[in-house]
Amino acid sequence: MKKTVVVYGSSTGTCQSIAETIASKLGVEAIEVTNFNTDVVAANDNLLIGTSTWGAGELQDDWYDGVKVLKDTSLAGKTVAVFGCGDAESYSDTFCGAMAELYNAAKASGATMIGEVSTDGYTFDDSDAVADGKFMGLALDDVNEDDKTEGRIDAWLEAIKPAL
């Protein structure tokens, strides 16, 4: 596996816990998005980036500066996968929608995007992070479906490892 980092933004600790689980399973470092900059991008071939979704589909607050890094840095030659946390019961119409902003920013900066996940097995009404019947990355509802989190992480990692 090439040099990989997991970058997350977390307000309540849920996305941090998921990021740390992903990083541990890969044997790589997880860093807060507040520490994400062009040096981190330059030092890594692969970026696994994660956010929670707030309100009507907004990014976790710390990611607004992180998105600027994604947009202002060439990601050509980099591989990026996105993961997100949401609450499909309380926010069924914006479930994990903030992933779309991360995905679109990385893709527009030239990254090779991996890690799309089928919406099969999820219960939600709508999400900006769905295109062609797939989430743009790994969507997790650790609030209502915490019993599925570990299996979904494992399946996602198995699917993306060959590209890392």
Automatic annotation (TrEMBL):
InterPro entries linked: Flavdoxin-like (IPR001094), Flavodoxin (IPR050619), Flavodoxin/NO_synth (IPR008254), Flavodoxin_lc (IPR010086), Flavoprotein-like_sf (IPR029039)
A GO term, aspect molecular function: FMN binding
Pfam family, one: Flavodoxin_1
SUPFAM superfamilies: Flavoproteins
Keywords: Electron transport, Flavoprotein, FMN, Transport
Gene3D superfamilies the record matches: 3.40.50.360
Cofactor: FMN
Source organism, top-level taxon: Bacteria
The Flavodoxin-like domain, residue ranges: 4-161
Task performed by this protein: Low-potential electron donor to a number of redox enzymes.
Family assignment from sequence similarity: Belongs to the flavodoxin family.
PANTHER family in alphabetical order: FLAVODOXIN 1, FLAVODOXIN 2
Protein's recorded name: Flavodoxin
